[in-house]
Amino acid sequence: MSHDLDIVDKLISLMSSGKYNAHDRLPSENEIADTYEVPRITARKAYERLEEMGYIYKKQGKGSYVKDRYQQIELVLTGDVSFSQKMIEKGYDFQSKTIFCQEIKYNKKIYNYLETTKEDKIFKVGRLRYIDRQPIALHVSYLAKSVFEDIDDVGRDITSMFQYYHSKGYTQFDSKPSVLSVSFPTASQRTLFNCPHLIPLLVLESGCMDKKTGKVLEYLKIYYRSDCFSYVLC
Amino acid sequence: MSHDLDIVDKLISLMSSGKYNAHDRLPSENEIADTYEVPRITARKAYERLEEMGYIYKKQGKGSYVKDRYQQIELVLTGDVSFSQKMIEKGYDFQSKTIFCQEIKYNKKIYNYLETTKEDKIFKVGRLRYIDRQPIALHVSYLAKSVFEDIDDVGRDITSMFQYYHSKGYTQFDSKPSVLSVSFPTASQRTLFNCPHLIPLLVLESGCMDKKTGKVLEYLKIYYRSDCFSYVLC
DNA sequence: CACAGCCAACTTGGCAACAAGTTATGCTCA
DNA sequence: TGAGCATAACTTGTTGCCAAGTTGGCTGTG
């Protein structure tokens, strides 16, 4: 017991065990250094990590405090029902905001996925999802202009993707296989989510097809703050 | 562009874009400090973070180098087929080692899940999974002694859980709903996985029931190194 | 020329001293 | 007595210096 990561573990277990509660003041860096018999710099590093992991916040001249962790929202990972509908059904204070709609430069993977050619244009539509006014998920939909002619005009006004599909005459859908992975937020994602760097994001890649024709309508990438959710598979 | 996290982002994008490849030597801390016009301590912090995220390794007196990232193994998240079978079918160099089998102290959640009482004993069986000799997943099975009388004797010899079930007369199974979450490894998990602290773990909680009687046989918790896998949902 | 050894110029690692911010106490003065 | 200000004792934040490790080139010697 001497490395800073050991102290991180220790403090996390003390916080989750209830020894320290939300907004409690933690021991000062010097106290930590004394109790664990390490130089202050080690105690300090431990606190810096905890801050980046979203467990604590610090106030210069005052001390370090336990952060209020977000509630764990149960999220069912299936493609059939829209995200907003799921959230509203569960009774959450849900909001959604479309934050961008812009053309992307050529990208082999996405163009192949949408079964389109280099001559086509593809737009990405970003929608930020809020629960209790906190941004907790980012949906990025990639749509081809050859399929959705007016996407560059109306993209920023889309609130529900399914509604938009309906207005284009697509009424029944198949979901393509979903791929899950974990990543860390980039600078812009950190800004959007207003979150520390070391909060991992759960990334869900999927797609949507028209059931009748089999045409690929959308390539979808969803980024979830992993500290806000637990995910239920069926 | 001045914070250490911005430099982390920048370097990650340079590495993934192919500007720096595996085992390439990265600019020294001082060079980073000069190019981004920050004090060396900032450059240093950025490198420390990258090291803990598993992107780079450092050699004192020599420099910092790009780490060989693990291949992404596609893992299908369904409870029907055993983990080892899936891996072997895909042609991976797969190994499994049972590393512990011990009684746990009373824990309400697990006891309830296994539908047993405080008088019962519950054992946890830990199996570490290797691919290409690298530990990449930890399976922890919780089994009740009332269901598996000889678990404390033979627990350490179990290689396949399904085989063990068969030997007890259970032949057909139902999988309970799976819950997914993300966490960071504890000290012991870090030792087992031989990994830096900031590699997130994907945690899959599930259970196994006997199809005929509906009896809950097992509470299962699987920890996957998130940097080794991409997960496919069906 | 060949080779051994030394030294200088890099690298990362660690730490101590100082800076800045906050608070509480106690002193001064009306 | 009471209000206000100075100060001391904490807190976290920052920086710069030196130690330790590695490399490669230069130099002296056979």
The low-confidence runs of chain A, each spanning 5 or more residues with pLDDT under 50, are none
Q: Note the gap between the termini of chain A.
A: 41 Å
Number of domains of chain A: 2
Examine the coordinates and then state which fold CATH places here, giving the name of the CATH topology of the largest domain in chain A: Chorismate lyase
Counting helices, strands and paired strands, the structural category of chain A is alpha+beta
Largest interface: A-B, 30 and 30 residues
CATH superfamily of the largest domain in chain A: Chorismate lyase-like
CATH architecture of the largest domain in chain A: 3-Layer(aba) Sandwich
CATH level 1 name of the largest domain in chain A? Alpha Beta
Query: Beta fraction of the residues of chain A?
Result: 25-35%
By oligomeric state, this entry counts as homodimer
| Gyration radius of chain A, rounded | 22 Å
* Strand element count of chain A: 11
Shape of chain A: elongated
What is the helix tally of chain A? 8
Percent of residues in helices of chain A: 25-40%
Sheet of most strands of chain A: 7 strands, antiparallel
Instruction: Please trace the helix and strand order of chain A, writing H or E for each element.
Output: HHHEEEHEHEEHHEEHEEE
Average pLDDT confidence of chain A is: 89
